[in-house]
Design brief:
Elements: H1 3-13, E1 18-23, E2 26-30, H2 31-41, E3 46-49, E4 52-58, H3 62-71, E5 76-82, E6 87-94, H4 113-117, H5 124-140, E7 142-144, E8 147-149, E9 154-156, H6 158-176, H7 182-188, H8 190-197, H9 202-208
Parallel strand pairs: 1-5
Antiparallel strand pairs: 1-2, 2-4, 3-4, 5-6, 7-8, 8-9
């Protein structure tokens, strides 16, 4: 049995929950879970095998990524797999309000350039879908220095946006608890404010805080 087949069996065992299993120096998810994590928290999708996606992150980043999944309110289970003794150990579980309800087998794969490479010969139909995905991603803009840039606008990358929101949320809690003042909180945000001043993020700044011009 392959590693991928093991994950498929775990997905069938706990349907709806995102399954994450350790493999070497990484935690891995495959198929519909990989597609969901790619779309929801931005993990890079690669090919596990033909038409089966995988995503992964380093072992030391477990808390970081499970926190992002919890923020999206998806249920998940994390397993540690010891290949030497052939044992699975459940090390973390979260019951969220949402479940991964992707059922169609064709959604095990997020079509990308890597998908085409998995085929022994060129497939014009797969190529057409891959081109469509690439066009849609290009419309979002080119990633450069923390921004998404195209000919019409300059926006903050999703990763930078998440970090900024988390920072503001944390500072608001500390202000409310009386641990710091508003002026002190502003000092922590000087770099972030400079970062977003030049971007087209009017709606984002209105939601989070007022910035003096």
């Amino acid at each position: 049995m392959s590693f991928g087949k093991m994950l498929e069996l775990l997905q069938n065992k706990d349907k709806g929950k995102i399954i994450i299993v350790s493999s070497g120096s990484f935690y891995i998810s495959i198929g519909k879970d990989a597609v969901l994590l790619h779309k929801e928290i931005g993990l890079k999708a690669n090919c596990m095998e033909k038409e089966i996606c995988k995503v992964g992150f380093p072992l030391n980043s477990l808390e970081k990524y499970t926190k992002l999944i919890e923020e999206k309110k998806y249920s998940y289970i994390v397993y540690n797999f010891d290949s030497k003794i052939e044992k699975l150990e459940k090390i973390k579980e979260y019951q969220g309000k949402k479940e991964n309800n992707i059922k169609e087998e064709n959604l095990n794969c997020y079509i990308c350039k890597n998908t085409i490479k998995m085929y022994k010969k060129h497939d014009k139909y797969i190529q057409a879908v891959a081109n469509l995905y690439e066009e849609e991603e290009n419309k979002q803009g080119v990633n450069f220095c923390g921004y998404k840039i195209n000919e019409y606008r300059l926006k903050i990358r999703d990763k930078g946006k998440r970090k900024l929101k988390q920072k503001v949320k944390k500072l608001k809690k500390e202000i409310k608890a009386g641990k710091i003042t508003s002026k002190e909180a502003k000092k922590y945000l000087v770099g972030h404010i400079g970062y977003i001043r030049i971007a087209n993020v009017n709606n984002l700044t209105k939601k989070m805080f007022y910035i003096e011009k």
